[in-house]
């Protein structure tokens, strides 16, 4: 989805609209296959006591960070089922890392890669978001005031648009 190409069939347009203005998945068949990597990040901010319980393995639903890591990986693989017009991709790498950031947060980073015709930014963003939602779900009985913040693309490489690095 993140790449360009023809939208429904006319010229080298970078759009998700066809000639009649209807939504259409971008045609990337003419694009060259390149190695593409995207990294996304976010934070789940919580009460310090909630973070302590996560770190001590004292959350009733189990290993919060382990389950959230798996949820993020699974979500990256299913991005095209969640985001309209997103291409189904054969990902070759998905890594989701969750790190306690005392006193009150868990930082999440996803790295997604493939060799293909379209980028993997949406897959990386989906991975961190679903991992964050999983942390929330597993800990909501302890802390309903948790916040998911700063969901963003940190960097990407490959494809016609080249490299992007967030400030």
From TrEMBL:
Pathway listed: Cofactor biosynthesis; molybdopterin biosynthesis
InterPro entries from the UniProt entry: MoaC, MoaC_bact/euk, MoaC_sf, MoCo_biosynth_MoaA/MoaC, Mopterin_CF_biosynth-C_dom
Taxonomic superkingdom: Bacteria
Enzyme Commission code: 4.6.1.17
Domain Molybdopterin cofactor biosynthesis C (MoaC): 25-159
Transmembrane segments annotated in the record for this chain: none
Keywords assigned: Lyase, Molybdenum cofactor biosynthesis
Keyword Lyase: yes
Active-site residues from the entry: 137
Positions with a binding annotation for substrate: 85-87, 122-123
Catalytic activity from the UniProt record: (8S)-3',8-cyclo-7,8-dihydroguanosine 5'-triphosphate = cyclic pyranopterin phosphate + diphosphate
Assembly and oligomerization: Homohexamer; trimer of dimers.
Family: Belongs to the MoaC family.
Function description: Catalyzes the conversion of (8S)-3',8-cyclo-7,8-dihydroguanosine 5'-triphosphate to cyclic pyranopterin monophosphate (cPMP).
Name listed for the protein in its UniProt record: Cyclic pyranopterin monophosphate synthase
């Amino acid at each position: 989805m993140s790449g360009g190409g023809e939208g429904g069939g006319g010229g080298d347009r970078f759009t998700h609209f066809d000639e009649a203005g209807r939504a259409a998945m971008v045609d990337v068949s003419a694009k060259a296959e390149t190695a593409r990597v995207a990294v996304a990040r976010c934070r789940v901010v919580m009460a310090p006591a909630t973070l302590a319980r996560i770190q001590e393995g004292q959350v009733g639903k189990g290993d919060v960070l382990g389950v959230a890591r798996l949820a993020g990986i699974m979500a990256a693989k299913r991005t095209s089922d969640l985001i309209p017009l997103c291409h189904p991709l054969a990902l070759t790498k998905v890594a989701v890392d969750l790190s306690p950031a005392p006193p009150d947060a868990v930082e999440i980073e996803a790295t997604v890669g493939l060799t293909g015709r379209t980028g993997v930014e949406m897959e990386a963003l989906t991975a961190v978001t679903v991992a964050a939602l999983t942390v929330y779900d597993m800990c909501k009985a302890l802390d309903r005031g948790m916040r998911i913040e700063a969901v963003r693309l940190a960097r990407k490489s490959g494809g016609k648009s080249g490299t992007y690095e967030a400030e």
